[in-house]
Amino acid sequence: MIGATLVGIATSAIRLATPYLYAAIGEAIGQLSGVLNLGVDGIMLMGAFTGFYVTLLTGHPALGLLAAMATGASMGLLMAFISVTLQAEQGISGIGLYLFGLGLSTLLFGMTVGTVKTVSGFPQAPIPGLSRIPILGEILFSHNPLVYGAFALVPLAWFVLNKTPLGLKLRAAGQNPLAADSLGVDVIRVRYVAVVLGGVLSGIAGASLSIALLNVFQQNMTNGMGFIAVALVYFGGWRPLGVLAGAMLFSTVNAIQVWLQVQGVKIPSDFALMMPYVITILVLASMAKRRIHAPAALNKPFERGGE
Amino acid sequence: MSDRVRSRQYAGLLIHLTPLFAVLLAFFVGALMLVGLGVNPGTAFKSLLQGAFGNLNAIADTIVKMTPLLFVGLGICISFRGGVLNIGGEGQLVVGALAATAIALAGKGFPGWLLATVALVTGALAGAVWGGIAGFLKAYLNVNEILSTIMLNYIAVYGMNYLLRGPMMDPLQVKLGFFIPQTARLPRAVDLPRLVPTRLHLGALIAILVAIFVYVFLWRTTIGFRIRTVGMSRRAALASGINVRRYTVLGLLLAGLFAGLGGAVEVLGVHHRMFTDGTAFGFTGGAGFNGIVAALFGRLHPLGTIPSSFLFGALLTGANKMQRVVQVPSALIVALNGLIVLFVVGSEVIRRRRLRRLEKLTIVEEEI
After folding, report:
1. Domain ranges for chain A
2. What CA–CA distance (Å, rounded) separates B88 from B67?
């Protein structure tokens, strides 16, 4: 009995970590290059909507995913243009992007779909062989493709960031853009690439909600997940593995909360729903004494020949 | 020579109009979006204008909608000028409204003016606490205030849902078995007086007086000067012996104070009870975010934020009409506001660069 419960919680924790992982790793890439994108939640909402709508029209979740990625890329491009080319204050422009995504996704949903509809999103894809392993098979290897993708992204991001020239350029642009520039790194271009890539991943994060985990779209369905993802980047110390730990912490709390509600445990549900946000604040506060620093040039626009 | 001076004056004027261009650009994009959705933008914008200014009631509604934007926006002026970004307007409005509601309900029987004043002050203080938490976390634990204020928004919303579905629910709702999540109506004695026979209430006047007060506070008092100094350069502020941490807390605390007052005014002046649809938006109408837009558009100047809040209040009022007439969800305005923020902060740099070039030109000429 207890065993089955734990397996159930662990399985849903893995599932629920998916959107956090995509969004937070995408955000980490952007931040490492020096751009703080606070519009993640807005990009996720647009990704969720376009993914949902295209899947609804075509019946192919793969096409929906592509649409969500394209949407994420264009919103990333917009953010890059405002914050890198126009050198706008990144915190405020991120909030602008959030409002834009929130409003536009609500508007489009209202004018095209209007009512609650479900789509048949990505099906479960148990991995042959591995999914038959007792316990672990159910927890780890009986999910849908987007869940596997999220976890595969962690080592992939680690490799790209730490072992490839692109990763090196990216981190240089975020640590010391002047030095990077003098060594021939095109800082502006690197930042564009990072922010657009982050946008694509946020788009996937949104789609993972609407066409893989929940298979519906609702206005403001992310409920601040994108902002929590930004907090996870701080929590994870700008490292993919750290982000993974943070995402698992959150999804486990979520899974336990859902389980408690199903069990009818007498905590007012509002307090249970409040938990992720309280924990985010506690987590951020507990980081005060840690010796991990943000990329030195985070939130600082770069101008060739500037001071 | 005089021609050149004049052309420079025009250039200077153009530079100050940059935010206006940003808004026009946002509306242009909005028009394109409407065309894409098969709606005639002319009809849509016309119904928007009519809804905002069409008759006396419409104008009064615009001013009613302007009021919370102005309260939030004034707090934004203080915090942004102090170098801290308060995105917590939504939560601060909710907390202020809840506190004012609780006081007004508890104090039934006291003279109306006294009870209303105490309720407004309590609402403001509750907002100040909510903002102050983020200020404390920023100053002493280095917690990014954007994230903490956003998290505090969600915490406030779930707290509100709990209270309105539980301890604060209207006893009548419980008795009738409807369980609509709202409080009882506040005693009529605390209703803010109406100014003209419309929905316009005293709160708008309070907001404008507060705007003047904030202007004087920021530019004519030592504390205001220090807040602005911290915002301009933390290092310079530290070097001149200013307690940067204290003023960081103060910036967010005051932002929360005015937003909380705004929430209290909404309850006493407009709704006369607290209610929830489960989200912050249901009660605030997004004023916590729209106030930021209004303050940015008002160039973070308390007096500039007055007309700017009026403009955005008009947009919101008009959007309701637009939704009824051409069935365009009022979410369009949320999207447009997002674009306006992007374009205003984006154009800020262009403006500054042009200004710098202008100054350089002038210096060169003077040297000649």
Report:
1. 2-286
2. 17
